[in-house]
Amino acid sequence: MKIKEVRARRIFNSNGGDAIEVEVESDVRTAKASIGAGTSVGKYEVNAYPENINSIINLVNNVFSKELRNLQIEKFGDLKKVEDYVNGHDTSENMNKIGGNVLVALELAILKACSNEPLYKILAKKKIKKMPIPLGNCLGGGKHSGGPDFQEYLILAETKKFDVAAEINREVFNAVKGELKKRDRNFIGGRGMEGGWNCSLNNLDALNVVRKAADKVGREYKIDVRVGLDVAGGSLWNGRKYEYKNFSRGNPKKNLNSEEQLEFIRKTIRSNNLIYVEDPFHDNDFDSFKELNKEACYICGDDLIATNPIRLNEALKKISAVIVKPNQIGSLLKVKEVINIAKDNKIVPIISHRSGETEDNSIAHLAVGWECPIIKTGIVGGERIAKLNELLRISEEI
Ligand code: PGA
Ligand code: ZN
Which of 156, 212, 271, 306 is the most exposed place for a label (fewest CB within 10 A)? Predict the structure, then answer.
């Protein structure tokens, strides 16, 4: 196809912030895309948007639109032409001037405008037979809510069926509400940035609530429903220690050094049969990741890797899963590279939403088209449901 017109506009995100949507008109069709941005942003991510959001909107509408006109794009690899062009306008290491979100939204819109086929088919090399399984955020803490220090309490059902797993996540989510009503005097039904419940419980009591709900639903479905955590260790690390404010009932304030943190997380994995732990340590502690990676549990790098192929190459054998957030690196070509490196090294790539989302459902297509075994999303909230519902539609076709 040939690009005819490119437009950018400001839209709202789910966090009360801004996002940018890019629309591409080609000789085949018109398509639009946007992508989420984070709150607990890792040190090694590129900038989501330039400080003055209008500057990039004007640049796209007045300059990119003219200069990209007639550019020929037929396949995924042709995005190199787009990245070379856009990066020519911003030579900064962290995409200060353009913003990672803008380039990714542009690339997604271009790909969609290539064909009348759905995006996942444009990305797939062969006929897709497998759906990703949803890793659902059911209770929030850390920078996403008050209450526990751990940022996310997650659910993963041990089934290969997407629709069953998504339904189980929803049932656990509802069961957690029931438990919180019984155990948290301050609970009034509030939810955090990614749709997970807010509560005033400490880290371990909250874990207990989620486990209990997961076990109950698991028994009903006769499927193991396991619990995971996003510790977001970088947010707890003060440069010397991990600073907890809501550690346990009698002992809310607690500081742990690196060895103590390793021991604490190891014990938490074992005594709760956790299936997944994300960023248990700060963004530079590769050694502790390596040590923890001996556990029978996915040890996942999010802020540690920042969807950067160079950082993933440093982490081989130190993690068993990696979070893939397209806007962290601001390049779909590098996102694909990260997924390839992960698969070649038996690391599970997990496509992920961000706390500040839009209704765009492209990440559902990335997960299916690039055959990622897991997708991390919220369980409720329009911007989260947009991804899950698209996956339900896609699963009918597969
Ligand atoms: P963020 O949180 O989108 O606010 O960065 C998600 C995560 O840490 O996994
Ligand atoms: Zn994370």
Answer: 271
Q: Which ligand is nearest to the CA of 353?
A: 1
Residue 304, φ and ψ in degrees, nearest 5: -60, -40
Give the pocket of ligand 1 (CB within 6 Å). Answer: 38-41, 151, 230, 232, 302, 354-355
> pLDDT means per 10 residues in the chain (398 residues)?
98 97 98 96 97 97 98 97 98 96 98 97 94 98 90 98 98 98 97 96 97 98 98 97 95 96 98 98 98 98 98 98 98 98 98 98 98 98 98 96
- Domain membership of residue 353 (yes or no) is yes
Q: Is residue 128 part of a domain?
A: no
Three-state SS at 153:
strand
Q: Are residues 290 and 179 in the same domain?
A: yes
Q: What is the CATH number of the domain that holds 106?
A: 3.30.390.10
Per the DSSP assignment, residues forming a β-bridge with 350 are 323, 374
Q: Which domain holds residue 71?
A: 3-116
- 344 Cβ contact partners less than 8 Å away, ≥ 6 residues apart: none
